[in-house]
Amino acid sequence: MTSQEKRNYHIRTIAFYNIENLFDTENDPFTFDDDRTPEGKDAWTFEKYNDKVKNIARVLSEIGTETAQIPPAIIGLCELENRKVIEDLINHEYLLSFNYGIVHYDSPDRRGIDVALLYQKDLFTPINSHSRRLLIYDLEDPSKRVFTRDQLVVTGIFEGEKMHFIVNHWPSRSGGEARSSYKRERAAWLNKQIIDSLYHIDPYSKIITMGDFNDDPTNKSLKKGLQTRANQSTTKFQELFNPMESLHKKGIGTLAYRDGWNLFDQIILTQAFLERDYTGYSFYKAGIYNANYLITPTGQFRGYPFRSYDYGGYTGGYSDHFPVYVYLIKEVE
Question: In sequence order, what E strands does the chain have?
Fold first, then answer.
C-alpha cells in the first residue's frame, strides 16, 4: 500500500433540494396559498401533507450516505411555506436522530415560499445569520416591485472551521427566459455583493452558495454575474468554482421540461475549497441524487423527476427537481 492509500478522511455532504411546494394545510390570508388547502384546487389534505413530509424526509436522510455514511451535514432547501413545515420535516423519524437545527426567515414572495438551512448540530454551530432582500422592479413599470425570495446567509463553525453558506431561490422564468433574465442577473449581483463582503472580512473565506438559480450553469447570471469557473485546476484566488457546469455539459439535469433537461440546482464553492491541504475541508466531488424511486416510472413524464403533483392531481411523489450535493473531505489521524 502507498502512503496515500493509508490516509484516513472524514467525508461530509452538503446538499440542496427544491422540495416542490411544501405547504401546510392552513390558509394564510397574507399569501397566495389558497390552492394548497383542503378546499383549494389541489385538495391539499392533512394526509397528503404528512405523506409529502415523509417522502422529503426520506430523501434528505439518504443523500450522500453511500459515501459519507451519514445524511448531509448541511442542507439548503427552497419552496417551503414556513418554519412549521421545516420543524415537521426534521422531527420525522427519518431525520429525528440526526438532531438538525434550522435557520429560516420569512421572505416577501407572494406565494409565501421561503428558503432555509438545516444543519446537524453536532457538526455545525451557526454564529451569525441574516436574510438579504432582493429588490427587483418591473421593467415596464419601474414603480412596481417584483416580490421574490430573500437570499439566506449563514456563518458558523463547521467542525472547527469557519464557513459561510448562502441559500438561493432566484426568480423564475415566468414570462420567458429572455424577458425574465434581468431578474436573475439582479439576483446574481446581490449574491456577488454578499460574497465580496465576506471576502472583505477574510480574503480566504470558505463560502458555498447554493440553490435553485432558475438558470443553467452556462447562463449569463452565473457566467458573467457570479463569474463562475468550470475547471477546478484553473480557478484562481477568490474565483468561484461551479462543479455542476461539467455535469450540465454532459446533458445531465435536475429538472425536465418539454423533453429537455435543465440543471438549475447548483452548489458553487470559493477557491479556498480547492486547496489540496486536507487539514481543513476541501472539495471532493459533486453529484445529483437521482435514485430510482425519485424517477417517474411510467406515462407521459417517464424518466422525469417524480413530482408530488401533476395534471392528474396528487401522485404520491417527491419533487419536480432532483437534489444536488457536494462532498467535502478532510484528513484525520
Answer: 8-22, 74-80, 100-104, 114-120, 124-132, 136-137, 145-146, 151-158, 161-169, 207-212, 228-229, 240-241, 255-257, 260-262, 265-270, 282-288, 309-310, 313-314, 324-332
